Amino acid sequence: LRPQPSAAELQQLGLAQAPHIRTQDPQAAYAFAQKTAFPLLIGGTSQGKKQKSAVVFDMPALRKYIVENKVEHILISQFIDGQKYEITALADGQRAVIPGIIEHLEQSGSHASDSIAVFKPQRLSAAHEALLRKAVITIAKELKLRGPLNFTFLIAKGRVYFLQLKTYAGHNLAFLSKATGHNIVALGTEVLLGRHLTEQELAPEFWAQTNDLIYIKMPVFSMLNYHSDNTFDSKMKNAGNVMGRDTALAKALYKGYAGAGLYIPSYGTIFISVKDKDKDHAIDLAKRFHRLGFKLLATEGTANIFAEAGITTDVVGKVHEGNDNLLTKIFDHQVKLVINVTDYSDAENQDAIRIRDRALSTHVPVFSSLQSAEYVLSVLESLALTTQPI
To answer: Is the N-terminal amide bond of 120 cis, ω within 30° of 0?
Structure first.
């Protein structure tokens, strides 16, 4: 069993935890779900083997996950939507240092390693950064941990949540090593072999960035035709990563997409589907894309929102309603870019997975957040010479 900080220790550090339970009784999990708001994050072990976690949106999906995965030891918690941060630390049992903090910019798949990540963090306040740094150093010292460590935190509505501590290196260690210019793998190995941090002449506690560059880690996908009989399978789909860097986040992101073979188009049709709460932001982006000469394609709800704002949009049916027209258009390269921001429902989530996989398998860029789409749009605007009727 991996060492983890206690609830009291986390509270003392100013960290929150999402409501959760660990149980071997499915009925206890169902009772927890009935008194806790969906969506829920569920995982666990079966015959001693860890099962991939999944987000479920209703009781039938929860029951199906437990049955399909034959989960014996269940961990279930409330799923909280927020900004995710990953912190790598090196510890020798007495002290710890932090090479860097990575921000998850956008989730490109169901596995954490499939996310688009950025170093240095772009939306982390000084106060929250100080809290995270103190928490990591304190936990590593209190638990007398040794070796490379991987901490995950979530910030939502001003609260900082502790998600996970892995007492081994995370998937983004190579990216962080490239970005910082330090061989963190070699340093971590030295610590595991018994060498103290003081013997390695490392900077105290936190390594300050020595340049003004922003680094983007972009996953490269090669297993998009992978299928599983398990409805909740979340196998990591990327086969590697590329890096984009620049002094501006938008340009670094643009380079990252290009490096991964997902070239941002300068013309063509864009599919847009957004949540109701994002409609004002989506209208602004749609107008800007339209001004550059792009054609817009949307599901009926989003198309109606755009029509009310005076934006001409073609309409396409929803995938879960049996309409494969959108998937066909993507496969035939009639859609050049996809912006798909979903709400939390089973149907929309399954649609998003099918749309994302179809797009990426045909090398069509996909954005699951409007902010990421706006970053790339700003680059297109800086490159474009537009003409408008008067």
So the answer is: yes
386 burial (CB, 10 Å; 0-12 / 13-18 / 19+) is: exposed
pTM, whole model, 2 decimals?
0.85
Q: Which residues contact 84 (CB under 8 A, 6 or more apart)?
A: 103, 104, 115, 152, 153, 154, 163
Angle at the Cα of 217 from the Cα atoms of 52 and 228, rounded to 5 degrees: 30
φ/ψ bin of 277: left (φ > 0), alpha (ψ from -120 to 50), beta (otherwise): alpha
Tell which residue, 214, 240, 235, has the closest CA to residue 111: 235
E-assigned strand segments in 47-174 = 49-56, 73-78, 83-92, 96-107, 115-119, 146-156, 159-166
Host H or E run for residue 3: none
The CA-based dihedral angle spanning residues 243, 248, 251, 254, taken in that order and rounded to the nearest 10 degrees = 50
DSSP at 206: B
Mean pLDDT per block of 10 residues along the chain (390 residues) reads 82 95 94 92 87 84 89 92 93 91 74 80 94 96 94 95 92 91 90 88 73 92 57 63 93 92 91 88 94 92 92 89 86 93 70 85 88 91 64
Contacts of 334 (CB under 8 A, 6+ apart): 269
Q: How crowded is residue 177: how many other Cβ atoms within 10 Å of its Cβ?
A: 19
Helix (H, G, I), strand (E, B) or coil at 370: helix
Structure-block tokens of residue 119: 């170093």
Confirm if 246 and 214 have CB atoms less than 8 A apart: yes
For 239-269, the DSSP string reads EEEEEEEESSHHHHHHHHHHHTT-PPPSSSE
Do strands 20-23 and 295-298 pair parallel, antiparallel, or not at all (unpaired)?
A: unpaired
Q: How many residues does the chain have?
A: 390
Of 294, 306, 288, give the one whose Cα is nearest residue 267: 294
Find the Cα–Cα–Cα–Cα dihedral 381, 108, 117, 129, rounded to 10°. 100
Q: What is the CA radius of gyration of the chain?
A: 22
